[in-house]
Amino acid sequence: MGAKSWWSQTDSRLLEAALGLAVLLVGIFGVLLPALGVAGLTDPTDTREVEAETAARVPGTVTDAVAGHGMSLSGNHRVDLVFADPDLGQRLLLALPEIVGSLLLLLILALLLKMARTLCGGDVFVPMNARRLSIMGIAVLVQAVLAPILPALTTEILVSGTPLAEQIPFSATFTGDYVLLAFLILALGEVFRRGTKLRADTEGLV
């Protein structure tokens, strides 16, 4: 008599529902609302947290009224770059890092949802899931690069040619967490790929 699986159809349905809800929320709050803000249909993003050299030279103080071209800085070590009335280009640059990050997250969640649906068939070890894991690993690796680079690049463009350009240095801090996670997912995808190939070869001998 075979051992009974601890994972039931109800568990699969709940997992699908949770992932579907996550896709919906990320789509609305991470992509749709920021895009509407860029278009001017809702309140746009008008603030970007940055590191300013002025604040670093005067620790513990508030950098206020350092303004130019409708922009101002306020805060101490980590300061807020505030736009009084951002135009279309500025709104796009302010929202771009969040939108791109959310799109990558949507891709990962959608792939996870498709993998979860294979649980209903009782077998996740299929070639398609190996490919999905590879795509997820690449998406996480791309996010590891874009997460620090996009805000830095867009901030550089936003302040270029303004009095604030000298106050805000180009700053991008990379961490190894996303890179490690990406390689773990890629390794898992390779395990899936080899496992499905081995099983296909074994079934061919029967």
Automatic annotation (TrEMBL):
Keywords: Membrane, Transmembrane, Transmembrane helix
Record-annotated membrane-spanning stretches: 21-41, 92-113, 133-150, 170-189
The name this protein goes by in its record: DUF2975 domain-containing protein
